[in-house]
Write a structure and sequence with these properties.
This protein has 154 residues and is an alpha/beta fold. 23% of the residues lie in helices and 30% in strands. It folds into two domains: 11-69, 2,3-Dihydroxybiphenyl 1,2-Dioxygenase, domain 1, CATH 3.10.180; 87-148, Signal recognition particle alu RNA binding heterodimer, srp9/1 (2-Layer Sandwich). A four-stranded mixed sheet has the order 1-4-3-2, with helices on one face. A four-stranded mixed sheet has the order 5-8-7-6, with helices on one face. The radius of gyration is 17 Å and the shape is globular.
Length: 154
């Protein structure tokens, strides 16, 4: 019988431009490259034909595996597709939430990265329960939510 709950290990992201993705994840989240791999098992080559490199980017307990593999262009943002819809990152305060949004805008306006889409982060919205959040795309067009749940009362 497996032990539950399982422990979340990493998010895997496929990209056509590994160097661009690594730089963005380093500059936006503060990730560091933990390891890189260029030799793959037969199973990996069957699952991911054309894979070139794999790197693990790490910050704190967060691991992001970036797979360099040529593929079709990113679909239009907002298109319906069977995929992970977004990854959500929680922060502790509204000021921190605003800081992440401003950091994204600063990196975008620097011109140092190639983005799949020109979409800007959404405005910060407040849900009926008081949760504040905004959404932003990484350089590959994958969506991240940044959220700040309301402080517990009590």
């Amino acid at each position: 019988m497996p032990k539950f709950p399982p422990v979340f290990h990493h998010v895997g992201i496929q990209t056509n431009d590994l160097d661009n993705s690594m730089l963005w994840y380093q500059d936006f989240f503060g990730c560091c490259c933990s390891w890189t791999q260029t030799t793959f098992s037969e199973l990996t080559r069957r699952r991911l034909p054309g894979i070139v490199r794999l790197v693990e980017m790490v910050v704190g307990d967060i691991r992001i595996h970036l797979f360099e593999r040529q593929g079709r262009a990113a679909r239009g943002h907002g298109d319906s597709a069977v995929q992970f819809q977004h990854v959500c990152m929680a922060v502790d305060s509204g000021d921190e939430l605003l800081g992440w949004r401003e950091k994204w805008l600063g990196l975008y306006s620097s011109g140092s990265y190639t983005f799949a889409f020109d979409d800007q982060p959404t405005e910060i919205v407040v849900d009926a329960d008081g949760t504040r959040s905004f959404y932003a795309l990484d350089v590959n067009g994958l969506e991240f939510e940044f959220t700040c749940p309301p402080s517990p009362v009590g």
